[in-house]
Amino acid sequence: MKIMSWLLTVACLLSFTSCSTAVKQPPLKTVPHVDLNRYTGDWYVYANIPYSLEKGKVGTLDRYALRPDGKMDNIFLFRRGSLDAPLEQWKGVAWVHNKESNAEWRVQFVWPLRVPYLIIDLDADYQWSVVGYPNRKLAWVLSRQPTLDEATYKGILKRLEAQGYDPAKLVKVPQNLP
Fold first, then answer.
1. Which domain holds residue 139?
2. Dihedrals φ, ψ of 169, to 5°?
């Protein structure tokens, strides 16, 4: 069963990297600098462009913690289909790929697959963040709280569009509200 799960993960992730878009777009622009100590902690997945491994997941949250070896634990917490479902988690590791900005990472949940994690928009107070993927088929809007005000979200969508994303593809993720 573990082999089948691994093969499914490999097939899905390879499909992200092997597909090319019809129109060649410039590379995504990351933010100039990320303070990793401020970035660590819990981030609710407020919205995303869902892909096969995230479809049906609700109450999702990414948790980042710095490790002594310079890498980060990346724990993805979620519930399947219902906010009342049991909490599950996937454990991964992340590391900074571009040490000048700290805005370009690699993330690995299954060896040997490493996927890009590009921080392309970030609140000055680290209350929300946007993570992009080079081919623009994936994106995540993260928030320190389970909700974002609509004006902030609309601004994020405009900036995503300016980077070549189709904002209509983003879907808000149901969250448990306090």
1. 34-172
2. -80, -15
